[in-house]
Structure formats: structure tokens, C-alpha cells
Please model this.
Amino acid sequence: MALGDFELMAFSDGTYPLDGGAFFGVIPKIMWSRKMVADEKNYVTSGLNSLLIRTGTQTILVETGMGNKLSDRMKKFYGQPAKLLDNLSGAGIAPDDIDIVINSHLHFDHCGWNTIRDKNGKIVPTFPRAKYYAPEGEWQYARKPSERDAISYIPENYDPLVESGRMTLLKGGEEIVPGISVETFRGHTASMQAIVVQGTGRNPHFSQNQGEVGHPRESFVGPTACYISDLMPTTAHIDIAWGMGFDLYPLETIESKKRYYARSIPEKWLTVFTHDAKTPWAYIERDELGKMVAKEAK
Ligand SMILES: [Zn+2]
Model:
């Protein structure tokens, strides 16, 4: 999809089973099962979506899925689809082509392909040329997580990158490259950051002069897309009150969603869903009754 002068592509690391009850928190199954089908063990299918942005000069990968370094115990729960590199390669994108990697937070299903084990068993960056970025608060928390979510943090995904200076830690609010910035949305964790992508476009009033000497192609701020990550992981989570059971601060999830919608709806942002196995992105709107609806992006 084109976003102004930027090009957006969605890539999947595959799907994995998640307990439907945990995925929808306090929402009764009789309600969520209308939106997502559970199997006989009550598992639903969760996607692992990464967003690739080509700015014209740089290639940026937002989120790196589950990766291929899970322990045998974790593999039993989640499988290990490990499809991201194959899917990138299918589109002609090699690890070497990635200039920048951004993680919204450091749960294992969001930064798994940050690193791989080389043939000697050493942890190395998967994307050898890339600069990595992640929220500083996440990294601080990941060093001493609570018993509740300690299983979600695998230090091999980020510690070697921080130690070698390859990963820059972000406070929130930084612009990483022109048009691509991060913004903290609390709720799922204390420091999770959404990645806001503002494409540039050309001023339509200048288009008639394009190519003429002496008429610079003036750019303007174009359409916006946002990788909102686990604030609303799928199109089934867009209702203000439909948070995940995994959220550490469920009341803040609600406030963060309101803050997001206050801009994303009037400005018609494209929302990118990290765990939706069918719909990687959509426009979220409010219908006449005030209900949130996801409109397919064409
Ligand atoms: Zn998470």
C-alpha cells in the first residue's frame, strides 16, 4: 500500500494458538466467540504481523515476530512458526536490506527475530546492517519483570543488542527518521510505544509544474498509519472496553484507546494490527450508534 511517498507492506511470522479467555480478558466467551472462533481447547489463532516501510531511502521493519529461539517448553505452548524471513525473502527482501528495526515492546512475540544464533551458537543480529530501537522503560522492566509476565521476556532478543550499542533505547516521542516516530501508550505494559508513520505527499497545487525547471516539488504531510501493537491487537479488540487479559494496566488501556481514537478517527489513520491473522490493517471508524467498526483498507 502507498502512504504518500512511503510504501507499506505487511509481513507475517506465522500464527500461533492463544487461549481465547486470556486474549479477551473479562469479555464473556458468548460475546467474543462471535468475532473469533475457538477450537476444542479454547485456543484462537493469533497472527504475528510485522510492518515494513520503504521511505525511498531507507527500509524499516516494525516488530520481528516470535523468531526461532524459543525453548522446548515455550514451543509446546506456542509452536514456533518462524516464517518471517521466508516471507520477506518471498518479496525479494533480504536481512541485509533492513536499515532500521523498531520494537513496540519487548515481549517475546514482538522481537523474536531481532537476533539469531549463528553456527557457533553465538547470538547475533538477524539484520546485520540494522540499527535497532526499543522503549527504554520496557528494557528496564524486562531486567526485573513481575512474576506475572516474566515468561514473556527473553533477554537474548535484546540484551546483546543493547550491550553492543546496536539498540537505541527510546523515551517515547522521538522521531526516528523523518515521518516515523514513536509514542507511548500505556496499558498493555507501562512503556509500550506505538509507531506512527506519516507519509509525505506532494502538494497538489504544485503537481501541474512537476518536472519544470524552477518549480520545486513541495511536499506536504500526507496520510498517517499507526502500528498500535498490543493496545488493540486485532480488529476484534477495537471496542474501548475489549482489552486483553494480558494487559498489566487494563484501565490505562481504556484511556490510551480513547487518546488514540481522538486523533486516529478524525485524521483517518490506517491502524496496523499486530495479532490479527486475517486483517493486518484497517481504518477504524465510529458508526451512527457509536460502535467501533473496522473498515477494510483497499
Ligand atoms: Zn505484548
